[in-house]
Amino acid sequence: MVATRSIGALESSMDGAEIAVRAAQPADVAGMAALVQENVRAGHLLPRSAAEIAASLGDWVVALVNDQVVGIGSLLLMNPDLVEVRSLAVATEFRSYGLGALIVNELVAQARARRIKTVFALTRAVNFFVRLGFTITDKERFPEKVWRDCVKCPLVTCCDETAVVFEP
Ligand SMILES: CC(C)(COP(=O)(O)OP(=O)(O)OC[C@H]1O[C@@H](n2cnc3c(N)ncnc32)[C@H](O)[C@@H]1OP(=O)(O)O)[C@@H](O)C(=O)NCCC(=O)NCCS
Fold first, then answer.
1. What CATH fold (topology level) applies to the domain 7-166?
2. How far apart are CA 69 and CA 27, in angstroms?
3. Quick one: average pLDDT of 123-133?
4. Which residue in 1, 21, 41, 74 has its CB near the most CB atoms, within 10 A?
5. Nearest CA to ligand 1 atom 34
6. For position 4, what pLDDT does the model report?
7. CB atoms near residue 96 (< 10 Å)
8. Is 125 in the pocket of ligand 1 (CB under 6 A)?
9. Domain ranges of the chain
């Protein structure tokens, strides 16, 4: 995988701020839900309520700056060998510092630890994923995704997202 900036390097570029990327905890849920909501409004993410986040908390990673949730990402299991990176977002004012990359790297590490063979995403941020070692692929490779989510999407016949895949 392509190396990304370390947390130490991020701290110096953020003027000594305290930065952490870790598994989500119950106290993070309100901040996570707010970040999801902000990105739903901007058209980047599908909705997920605070209750849904709390019920799947073990699948989420957060980035914190000075104890504030500023980044989120989750894994959504499609089948025992296939997991989707879902609900990935970094607060606007904290983008381009490398936090998104740290979140995805942590999610991929978690998928590896769970021995899940394939990690994929449907995204418009294609270059972001390619820089992290993902490759572009055909979304028809993921019928579970198409049948679970895409069929309900108004853009199903004119989808502007690209499938990217990482096979550890
Ligand atoms: C995608 C996102 C999570 C990246 O977070 P981040 O902390 O800025 O990521 P990093 O700092 O590690 O990497 C930034 C780089 O990713 C790439 N990138 C980010 N968003 C991109 C996009 N929409 N399209 C193409 N490349 C993108 C750029 O190369 C960028 O580098 P630059 O800032 O020098 O231009 C963030 O932009 C975001 O929250 N976007 C809105 C939500 C979203 O689109 N989520 C993806 C759903 S799968």
1. Aminopeptidase (3.40.630)
2. 10
3. 97
4. 74
5. 96
6. 62
7. 8
8. yes
9. 7-166
